[in-house]
Amino acid sequence: DIQMTQSPSSLSASVGDRVTITCRASQGISRWLAWYQQKPEKAPKSLIYAASSLQSGVPSRFSGSGSGTDFTLTISSLQPEDFATYYCQQYDSYPLTFGPGTKVDIK
Amino acid sequence: EVQLVQSGAEVRKPGESLKISCEGSGYSFRNYWIGWVRQMPGKGLEWMGIIYPGDSDTRYSPSFQGQVTISVDKSISSAYLQWSSLKASDTAMYYCARRHGDYGEFDFWGQGTLVTVSS
């Protein structure tokens, strides 16, 4: 199974800050990586697929990069509605696996 | 508009059976994989398994193989997750999600079904 790790596990940031979250796969997954945003008591929402492609309707302040084993999610200027937990997920092979999540809260 | 609508919250006792559902609309249900994801209270997302409605091809996570059954009724555009004997540790929120294409990410998610197992 491919293990996914994320860092940091949590971070505190202010509105307007640039935020970067890292995701690492235990083996190469090419660019088969997605990022999801989950707000409290809500279903996850797809943000990015194929490592760097933005889902329709997702603001351009979100961006993704990476390939192989190392990936990043960047929020260029954090907005109040971005405070949430972010998960990466590999879909290169079964079993599909998620990272443990990164909680972004208000400083 | 693509929508996945899940059945409502359930409360059961340990040892009881349960089947929850996920109805898709706004797209060709039979042509997209539907996955199930567990989220235990205060915890992260865990992939449980996935089914292709067109031919009922099903894959399970090793962690959930034998613990749950995933099924589908494409005639009514619905996927199901069922337990034959619930445990307290099955208490969680369960999400269904549509897989984009044969090899893609989960692009649309249901609203979740909360399952509470308590004596």
Describe this structure in words.
The complex is a heterodimer of chains A (107) and B (119). Chain A is mainly beta and 107 residues long. Chain A is built from no helices and 11 strands. In chain A, strand 5 and strand 6 form a beta hairpin. Chain A starts with a strand and ends with a strand. Chain B has strands at residues 3-6, 10-12, 18-25, 34-39, 45-52, 57-60, 69-73, 78-83, 92-99, 106-109, 113-117. In chain B, strands 2, 4, 5, 6, 9, 10 and 11 form a 7-stranded mixed β-sheet that branches. Chain B has a 4-stranded antiparallel β-sheet with strand order 1-3-8-7, with no helix packed on it. Chain B is globular and about 40 Å long. Chains A and B meet through strand 4, strand 5 and strand 10 of A and strand 5, strand 9 and strand 10 of B.
Task: Give the oligomeric state of the chains in this entry, treating copies of one chain as homo and distinct chains as hetero.
Answer: heterodimer
How many β-strand runs of chain A?
A: 11
Gross geometry of chain B: globular
Task: Sketch the topology of chain B as an H/E string, one letter per element.
Answer: EEEEEEEEEEE
Secondary structure: number of strands of chain B: 11
Alpha plus pi helix count of chain A: 0
Round the mean pLDDT of chain B to the nearest integer and report it: 97
The general outline of chain A is: globular
Radius of gyration of chain A: 13 Å
Largest inter-chain interface? A-B, 23 and 26 residues
Biggest β-sheet of chain B, characterized? 7 strands, mixed
Q: Give the proportion of residues in helices of chain A.
A: under 10%
pLDDT < 50 stretches of chain A: none
Quote the beta fraction of chain A.
over 45%
Cα-atom Rg of chain B, whole angstroms? 13 Å
- Strand residues, percent of chain B: over 45%
Low-confidence stretches of chain B: none
N to C succession of SSEs of chain A: EEEEEEEEEEE
